[in-house]
Amino acid sequence: MIALNMEHNPSVTPMKVLHLEDSLLDHQLVCRALKKANFNFEITRVETLEAFTQLVNHSAFDLILADYRLPGFTALDAWSALPTNSVRPPFILLSGTIGEAAAVSAIHSGISDYLHKDDLERLERVIKRALEVCQAHAAKEKANRELALSEKRLAEFASYLQAAIERERAVIAREIHDDIGGSLAAAKLDLAWISRHQTEATIEAHVQAAIEMLQHAIGASQRIMMNLRPSILDQGLFAAIQWLATSFEKRTGVKTYLRTNNEHLVPKKDIQLTAYRTAQEALTNISKYAACSQVHIELSDAENVLTLEITDNGKGMSGQEMAKTEAFGLRGLQERAKTVGGWLDISTREGTGTSIILSVPLGPPADSSHDALEEQFQ
Ligand SMILES: Nc1ncnc2c1ncn2[C@@H]1O[C@H](COP(=O)(O)OP(=O)(O)OP(=O)(O)O)[C@@H](O)[C@H]1O
Ligand SMILES: [Mg+2]
After folding, report:
1. From CA 105, how far away is CA 55, in angstroms rounded?
2. Residues with C-beta atoms within 5 A of ion ligand 2
3. Domain encompassing residue 374
4. Could you read off the pLDDT of 203-247 as tens digits, one per residue?
5. What is the position in ligand 1's atom list of the atom closest to the CA of 286?
6. Using CA positions, which residue lies closest to atom 24 of ligand 1?
7. What is the pTM of this model?
């Protein structure tokens, strides 16, 4: 049901006016005032609430003019009978004196304007203003709807991108494992064989140096695999975050404390991965920007909400830094949190430090066989 005729273009199609009026004479006066104002219009008169309701539910009108007091009902009853699932057309009270209280209550209930029947020379101005207000309102509603749709699409796209990234990461990790890891391990075995079957000291020195290099490469490929596909999550979220915290402390020398109320927390896989990636990005940011001496990580499932808080005592960040257009880490985390029904809070003060807090309401316990992201861990 369309109450407002949005297609109406006054220069081409006549403005469709509905006039709620029981006096034929008053109706004719209104028609005369509309003609005098040079409106291109089509007008329909109704007298009863039933006829009014019937019409507004089946036809679109650009304007409603209504007498206030009609036999057995008032214009407020007519206003309430308008369909509410779309923008209502401008509704102007055109009446004898109705009293200030009734006029105020009418305007409060959303009626566009009030004009005394003796003041019809002002009708043109009142109609034009009401049409403008209504059009602005309709345009705002349309813009809001488009914005909501575009935000929904963006969230869906972010979720799709994240799933695609995780899938790609898993494929790369598997290839490193199968091709590079396998070849490095085989080369190391062969070098060990050479070392056992030769006696030359200079050759032995070269072999040992090559084994050391290979060992280094094997360590690096394992580290890269772990970043790409956190198989450590198989041992539980706490163990995985602990692994992140320990490697962070080793790499940066920043004292890192980890606390939890539940070491055996097993949320659904997609929530685990979100929490893991949140901790990973927060720690990467800390090592890049925070210049801090301590990091506290707290993981909790109190009140059936997973909370992961990563706090540093570094330099904090400004609003400008948070809103950087070319920075996607924190924004990505925010979108990612939404994909699992959670949210991300960032609390920071320049000179005091930063807290990144992920909160995700936990549903019923995970049934891993039905987990959509399960295969990304394989
Ligand atoms: N713990 C922190 N302490 C101080 N500043 C921070 C911290 N974390 C983030 N920032 C600031 O906030 C900005 C935005 O961070 P964000 O992770 O979104 O982007 P980025 O790290 O710059 O780039 P990307 O993550 O896309 O590689 C950073 O550039 C940095 O200036
Ligand atoms: Mg970042």
Report:
1. 25
2. 285, 329
3. 232-378
4. 999 999 999 999 999 999 988 988 887 888 888 999 999 999 999
5. 1
6. 329
7. 0.66
